[in-house]
Write a structure and sequence with these properties.
The chain has 733 residues and is α/β, with parallel strands linked by helices. It has 3 domains: 70-115 and 337-567, Zn peptidases (Aminopeptidase, 3-Layer(aba) Sandwich), CATH 3.40.630.10; 119-334, Glucose Oxidase, domain 1 (3-Layer(bba) Sandwich); 575-728, Transferrin receptor-like, dimerisation domain (Transcription Elongation Factor S-II, Chain A), CATH 1.20.930.40. The protein has 22 helices and 15 strands. The chain has helices spanning 17-35, 53-60, 70-81, 91-106, 183-191, 210-219, 268-271, 284-293, 301-304, 372-390, 412-420, 422-428, 453-460, 473-481, 507-513, 537-544, 549-567, 575-593, 600-625, 631-646, 685-696, 708-728; strands spanning 110-131, 138-140, 163-164, 169-173, 175-177, 200-204, 224-228, 239-240, 279-282, 324-345, 350-360, 397-404, 429-439, 444-448, 518-523. Helix 10 (372-390) links the parallel strand 11 (350-360) and strand 12. Helix 4 (91-106) runs parallel beside helix 10 (372-390), helix 10 (372-390) packs across helix 17 and helix 19 runs antiparallel to helix 20. The model is unreliable at 1-47 and 485-491 (pLDDT under 50).
């Protein structure tokens, strides 16, 4: 049936001039009402707004839907998440996952819970006693934390201090104080005539990753390790000692899903993931009691700084039998289910491109700082994005908000998820934005891959500093960095951004395995209650962030960075900054290597990358100025964005680093333990590893000379940088 003929005003319908005027006003009023929604639940099209409308709206949302301040909302999240301990694999951890899931759903996210069955480690019992002579009376040392760190009734028990994955074991042996347990500390002891073989070494935290410190003691022949933190207000630092990289020990390199393949717990590859000798953390008071009783040569003066006043001059022991330690630790390893909670907002135009935000949820104790200051900020980001959704916003690219489990055991939740989705992430992930301990104290700090520096600077220029009434986060950050306050060019970066050549939070698998551009942020350098029972809501509300302004600032920085990465038609990546950083890295390595190995091939490839980056910058400018959203323009932008996104993957080597195949990034994977002893900087890890071996080699150990492997690693790094340069170029020829 054909449609009826169009009816015109002249077809028998008459309107007076006043009536037409009224209708015109009515239509104008209706049009304005559509343009300016009067409630959060109206849904105008996002296409009617300027590019900065939704970022500005995001920053303005300091009040949650139910009224009150954003500070109050974040405070409520943190209080709820820290009512009791929620160690991964225990029943309270499921309640924390359900809390996060509920709030993501309430904010309008599509959600999924991904479960993995992994090997975790828990304590059974431990004891430590002083024995004044062989066969003498034992004085049992108190290994517990103060009673004020106990969990409230009905909320579960705080796990006793222990080292996850420490082997069970016992020893009755003399103690030796080894300072931080670094290689130079053992060398100084050897020069004093002190041998640690068969002894129990006592050391203080600060000598690097605790697992590597324990393994180093094992290599020196120690029987067991006792670790203390001089600070902490009486708290005792828990932690993992897992070796060989992150992830479930039974599925190295693949995800621990369902009934999939797993190695046997007694497999050699699994056994190498655990230190060879047992260890335990102890209170500073217990360590002081041991130090006071020890004889032997006096410790060097620098080994005594920061110790308890009751031990103004420590002695290092000497292997005699006049003082013994009776050490005993029993642990158990259990298969447990962990849960990652994922929330998604699907992209409107590029649904298959993902901007990923992540924070872990599990904690050794209450976790007010580590990690739930970050979890509370993540939920506030979700709340604000939910408001934007109700205002009609849809991101160009998809946004994922991820709450990881079992990070404290070795980044297990995030690693299993990345391993399960590795190919998808390598081909489609735009960036990963990590926040672990969002608030530890004052001052903003960040680590990132260099192409994100300019974005980070631009975002922090828009967020008010939580500890200053008249400055932005960027201004106080730049002042603390000692950089000039003036801005010489539009995107000048005058702040110190750390590089992510470490593996201590959930960015690890994204960057070192998948090659995804990554960012890690936090307020405050450190705090005394790290991994202790003092990491609770009371400490945060009284000392860490009483007004919760730092939490709000973190949510704003985090969310604003995500909005730019998800919505900017041309990704805000700067590879000229990457090339400049690589040149600084290469110069630092070259100055240490001297004439032994030339960094010439790397320098040449960096010049190649800089040339490609300059061309990419000019292309980005042209694409930003192109008007219209027709298919041809969109296709050009998408192709260019993919080159920006995939250039980071070029730094990966599928075979990985020598002896550490899981780590594949040839610029920013962490060097092997001991590589830094040769004074090499923490980048170009393959070169650092090979150079450390060359410096320690004896003549004749290498068939073609100890420096030949270093030169091979130089060429391998050079090829990776050249691959990145090629990835940025639009053509093969």
């Amino acid at each position: 049936m054909p449609p009826p003929p169009a009816r015109h005003l002249s077809d028998g319908v008459r309107f007076s001039i006043p009536c037409l005027a009224f209708l015109s006003l009515l239509l104008l009023f209706f049009f304005l009402a559509l343009r300016r929604p009067s409630s959060l639940h109206e849904k105008p099209s996002s296409m009617t707004h300027t590019a900065d409308y939704f970022p500005t709206l995001f920053l303005s949302l300091t009040s949650p839907d139910g009224g009150g301040a954003a500070n109050d909302s974040i405070s409520e999240h943190l209080r709820a998440l820290t009512l009791g301990p929620h160690l991964a694999g225990t029943p309270p951890s499921s309640s924390a996952a359900a809390y996060v899931l509920r709030h993501l759903l309430n904010s309008g996210f599509r959600t999924r819970v991904r479960e993995y069955r992994v090997l975790l480690s828990y304590p059974v019992r431990s004891s430590l006693s002083l024995v004044l002579s062989a066969g003498g009376e034992a004085h049992r040392l108190d290994l517990s934390e103060p009673s004020e760190t106990a969990a409230p009734p009905g909320t579960g028990q705080v796990v006793p201090p222990y080292h996850a994955y420490s082997p069970s074991g016992s020893a009755l042996a003399p103690p030796v104080y080894v300072n931080y347990g670094r290689r130079e500390d053992y060398e100084k002891l050897a020069a004093m005539g002190v041998d640690v073989r068969g002894c129990i070494v006592l050391l203080r935290r600060g000598g690097g990753y605790r697992g590597a410190v324990v393994q180093r003691a094992a290599e020196r022949g120690a029987a067991a390790v006792v670790i203390f933190s001089p600070g902490g207000g009486g708290g005792v630092e828990r932690g993992t000692v897992l070796l060989g990289g992150p992830g479930d020990p039974l599925t190295p390199g693949w995800a621990s899903v369902g009934e999939g393949e797993r190695l046997r717990p007694d497999d050699d590859a699994v056994a190498r993931r655990f230190p060879a000798i047992p260890s335990m953390p102890v209170p500073a008071a217990a360590a002081a009691a041991i130090l006071r009783a020890m004889g032997g040569p006096p410790a060097p003066a620098e080994w005594c700084r920061g110790l308890a006043p009751a031990t103004p001059l420590a002695r290092v022991g000497g292997g005699g039998l006049d003082l013994l330690l009776n050490f005993s630790y029993e642990g158990e390893r259990k298969m447990r289910t962990i849960r990652d909670v994922i929330g998604e907002i699907g992209g409107e135009r590029e649904r298959d491109r993902y901007v990923v935000l992540g924070n872990h949820r599990d904690a050794w104790t209450f976790g007010a700082v580590d990690p739930n200051s970050g979890t509370a900020a993540l939920l506030d980001v979700a709340r604000r994005l939910g408001v934007l959704l109700r205002r009609g916003w849809r991101p160009r690219r998809s946004i994922l908000l991820c709450s990881w489990d079992a990070e404290e055991f070795g980044m297990i939740g995030s690693t299993e998820w990345v391993e399960e989705n590795l190919q998808l992430l390598r081909s489609k992930a735009v960036a990963y934005l990590n926040v672990d301990c969002a608030v530890q104290g004052p001052g903003f700090f960040a680590g990132a891959t260099p192409q994100l520096d300019s974005l980070l600077a631009a975002v922090t220029r828009k967020v008010k500093d939580p500890d200053s009434d008249d400055k932005t986060v960027y201004q106080t950050w730049a002042a603390r960095s000692g950089q000039p306050p003036q801005v010489r060019r539009k995107h000048a970066v005058f702040v110190n951004v750390e590089r992510l050549g470490r593996a201590d939070s959930d960015f690890t698998a994204f960057l070192h395995l998948a090659g995804v551009p990554s960012l890690d942020m936090y307020f405050g350098e450190e705090y005394a209650g790290y991994h202790t029972g003092f990491d609770n809501y009371e400490w945060m509300s009284k000392h860490g962030d009483p007004l919760f302004r730092r939490h709000v600032a973190m949510a704003e920085i985090w969310g604003l960075a995500a909005l730019h990465l998800a919505d900017d038609p041309v990704l805000p990546f700067d590879y000229l900054a990457y090339a400049a950083n690589l040149q600084e890295h290469a110069s630092a390595v070259s100055s240490r290597l001297g004439d032994a190995a030339s960094m010439g091939p790397v320098n040449a490839s960096i010049e190649e990358l800089a040339a490609s980056a300059r061309e990419a910058g000019e292309e980005a400018q042209r694409l930003r100025q192109e008007e219209g959203d027709d298919a041809a323009v969109e296709l050009r932008r998408r192709g260019f964005n993919d080159r920006l996104m995939l250039a980071e993957r070029a730094f990966l080597a599928e075979e990985g680093l020598g002896g550490r195949a899981w780590f594949k990034h040839l610029v920013y994977s962490p060097p092997a333990e001991g590589s830094s002893d040769g004074g090499l900087p923490p980048f170009f890890p393959g070169i650092a590893d090979a150079a450390a071996r060359a410096m320690a080699a004896r003549p004749g150990e290498e068939e073609d000379g100890p420096w030949a492997p270093v030169r091979r690693e130089v060429w391998r790094a050079a090829r990776a940088v050249s691959r990145a340069a090629a990835a940025l170029r639009p053509d093969l020829l």
